[in-house]
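Supplementary Methods. Inverse-folding protocol.

Structures were first reduced to a discrete structure-token string of length 353. This string, shown here, constituted the complete conditioning input.
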């Protein structure tokens, strides 16, 4: 009888431990240990937000080929090389909230320990993400920057003295992230670097010409748009030296670096025009405008992507109706802009890391 009682007690204890562990996990994320089916995306994809679900298309030169229908999301980060996929989605129980869904290492992980998250940024190989969180709907309820390990499904300790400005942050490798802000101790503004392994923070770039409005890291260099009173300057910083590219660009909405051809493409506005597509040759240090009449206007919120063969995909408007956009492809070989979507809709471009 004693043995039976012992077995019962052991069984009940094991059940309680498992139950407590499961409840604890649900506070921050839910893991599904079963094998998951990962998407088969091309290097550049087009998301069409028209119906109940979002249609995802792969791109092949001037053609769009449907890949799948997926539950609605506002942002995708993914890397085909390491098969990591991150979706920013509305919460099913409360549409005012959202959550982050991660598919990695045959595990589905949902992060929901916040009210609202935005501006997801992924490390080059997909092992880390960074994002901003808010306690409520109000913008002044911001909680700051969160770093997360997608392989281990855990938050990363982030000991920073810097008040980060908006979404000005980006990973430069699997352990280091850059961000622009003000040091709370020294009150110095600049771009800072944080190492997630050593937990050390140091200044990466200071003494910029005014306030940083945008920056992009590429090949150990920085593309920086700074504003000083009524002056806006676009620089390339390289080993302590800076090169002025333009003093007309006043806002950059999105940018991407084609590392194989050493070309940066940006969607930006200047003193004379609305959102436009530009090319920056980082070897010749030359900047060129690429769009004029077709499309009539580039969609500043439509995203941008570069395929492995160097074709650039973006969204634009062919009429004054800003509710529907089209998908365009810029071909650097003949310097042409090509309309590739059949009908106007609500498109957005995403690209693999």
């Amino acid at each position: 009888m004693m043995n039976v009682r012992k077995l019962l007690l052991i069984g009940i204890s094991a059940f309680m431990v498992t139950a407590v562990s499961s409840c604890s996990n649900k506070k921050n994320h839910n893991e599904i240990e079963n094998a998951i089916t990962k998407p088969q995306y091309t290097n550049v994809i087009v998301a069409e937000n028209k119906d109940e679900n979002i249609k995802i298309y792969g791109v092949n030169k001037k053609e769009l080929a449907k890949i799948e229908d997926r539950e609605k999301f506002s942002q995708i980060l993914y890397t085909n090389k390491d098969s990591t996929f991150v979706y920013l989605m509305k919460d099913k129980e409360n549409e005012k909230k959202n959550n982050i869904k991660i598919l990695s290492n045959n595990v589905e992980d949902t992060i929901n320990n916040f009210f609202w998250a935005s501006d997801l940024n992924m490390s080059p190989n997909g092992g880390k993400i960074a994002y901003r969180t808010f306690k409520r709907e109000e913008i002044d309820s911001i909680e700051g920057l969160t770093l997360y390990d997608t392989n281990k499904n855990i938050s990363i300790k982030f000991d920073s003295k810097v008040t980060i400005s908006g979404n000005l942050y980006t990973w430069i490798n699997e352990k280091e992230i850059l961000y622009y802000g003000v040091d709370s101790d020294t009150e110095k503004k600049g771009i800072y670097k944080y190492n997630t392994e050593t937990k050390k923070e140091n200044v990466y770039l200071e003494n910029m010409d005014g306030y940083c409005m945008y920056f992009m890291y590429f090949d150990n260099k920085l593309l920086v748009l700074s504003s000083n009173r009524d002056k806006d300057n676009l620089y390339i910083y390289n080993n302590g030296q800076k090169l002025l590219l333009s003093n007309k660009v006043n806002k950059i909405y999105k940018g991407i670096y084609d590392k194989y051809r050493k070309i940066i493409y940006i969607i930006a506005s200047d003193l004379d025009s609305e959102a436009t597509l530009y090319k920056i040759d980082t070897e010749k240090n030359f900047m060129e405008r690429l769009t004029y009449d077709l499309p009539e206007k580039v969609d500043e919120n439509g995203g941008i992507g570069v395929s492995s063969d160097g074709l650039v995909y973006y969204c634009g408007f062919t009429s004054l109706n800003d509710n529907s956009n089209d998908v365009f492809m810029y071909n650097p070989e003949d310097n042409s802009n090509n309309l590739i979507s059949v009908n106007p809709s609500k498109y957005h471009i995403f690209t693999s890391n």
